[in-house]
Specification:
With 278 residues, the protein is of the alpha/beta class. It contains 11 helices and 8 strands. It has one domain: Alpha/Beta hydrolase fold, catalytic domain (Rossmann fold, 3-Layer(aba) Sandwich). The chain has an 8-stranded mixed sheet, sandwiched between helices. Helix 2 crosses helix 3 and helix 3 crosses helix 8. The longest helix has 23 residues. The chain is globular, with a radius of gyration of 17 Å.
Length: 278
């Protein structure tokens, strides 16, 4: 293998598909170097956009990293139990596969936005697999909102200069729109509503109790989806120390954009640092 070459993996998940009886859902993984950190990318970061996430991170000096695409929820029924099972099972399967394939003794993990709920649940249930640092970037599941509020926050982010003038945001938006339309046609929008209502607070409290110095939540100062104030209030109500929260610049930007990748890189550097484990 050439130095710096990107390794591509497709991991078939142990879950049945409602789309095809012959094919099972799968998740795509891109790897640079010998990964000790895994980044789970959120909604819409599929196909070429996933490659752009990795390219932007490498341009900022991030290596030894695995970038994972969104879990294929469009293959499952529109039920809360199925949605959670796919997310948690998928995250565990990816972490287990990478640890075995690359012989990783300590695995750090980062999840952004919608992927944070599944990662938090998985890490609290399987501390032996997720034995490194955990970074949650602009996480879903610590605040509550209606579909109308969520869409308003999405629009505000899309038309912000950090994304509107970065062409890499548009392919992500197109894919995300298509996935929302699929859900509306098949399930009347039920999966969308279940996804944005995922409550992460109980599991986060459990995870924090186990590894208080190995977990950090990163909130974006200009995030219109999961605001700093809402996350702070949620952490306080859950009895989680304020030093577990770090406020970083920017908005709720896709990791396939330069603005979003800066946030991801910052979170990854914390995970890889000695400070995280101190």
């Amino acid at each position: 293998m050439k130095s710096g070459a990107v390794q591509k993996h497709t991991l078939v998940l142990p879950i049945a598909s409602i789309i095809s009886k012959r094919r099972r859902p799968s998740v795509h993984i891109l790897v640079s170097g010998r990964p000790n950190t895994v980044f789970f990318a959120g909604f819409g970061n599929e196909g070429s956009s996933l490659g752009r996430v990795l390219s932007l991170l490498k341009a900022q000096g991030i290596d030894d990293i695995a970038v994972v695409g969104p879990m294929p929820y469009w293959h499952i029924p529109a039920e809360e139990s199925d949605l959670r099972a796919l997310g948690i099972t998928g995250v565990v399967a990816v972490a287990s596969y990478l640890r075995e394939h690359y012989d990783i003794p300590t695995l750090h993990v980062v999840a952004e936005s919608q992927t944070a709920g599944a990662l938090t649940h998985a890490a609290s249930q399987h501390p032996d697999i997720f034995n490194g640092n955990v970074g949650l970037l602009r996480p879903l599941g610590l605040t509550t909102m209606t579909r109308k509020e969520f869409k308003a926050g999405l629009r505000a982010g899309l038309f912000h200069a950090d994304q509107f003038f970065d062409w890499r945001a548009w392919p992500v938006g197109v894919v995300a729109t298509w996935r929302v339309l699929q859900d509306r046609l098949r399930h009347g929008g039920k999966q969308f509503d279940l996804g944005i209502s995922w409550d992460n607070r109980k599991e986060l409290k459990k995870l924090y109790a186990v590894k208080p110095k190995q977990i950090r939540i990163f909130a974006a100062a200009g995030d219109r989806l999961y605001s700093v104030e809402a996350i702070q209030a949620s952490l306080k109500a859950s009895g989680i120390a304020t030093n577990a929260l770090e406020v970083i610049p920017g908005i709720h930007a896709s990791p396939a954009t330069r603005a979003g990748s800066l946030q991801v890189a910052h979170t990854i550097r914390w995970c890889k640092s000695d400070v995280a484990a101190a």
